[in-house]
Amino acid sequence: QVQLVESGGGLAQAGGSLRLSCAASGGAFSSYVMGWFRQAPGKEREFVAGITWSGASTSYADSVKGRFTISRVNAKNTVYLQMNSLKPEDTAVYYCARSNTAYATSILTWPGRYPYWGQGTQVTVSS
Fold it and tell me: Which side of the chain, N or C, has fewer Cβ within a 10 Å radius?
């Protein structure tokens, strides 16, 4: 079965950087859109960034545009989220997710369109 394992979370100061990784196994990683989502306490899970199967297209939430970069290395079955200029409001549990439509060219932002999820990694940004 598909397994996704996130790593790289932790504590950072405002203005600092963190790099999240998500290692996938058990499925054809290179064929699917991958997404990063986050959920803060008391809030709904929200889309952060997504990348198509080839890496040719990316999409970002307005709140992270210009600060976060999503990338993937299909040979390593891994997707990354480079987070720069972190803000306290970026504090959340970050999840990676895999879509279920092979070779899709559009990136959906609704969590319900991603059937596979990792366990999440905590990111805390102090002011």
Answer: N
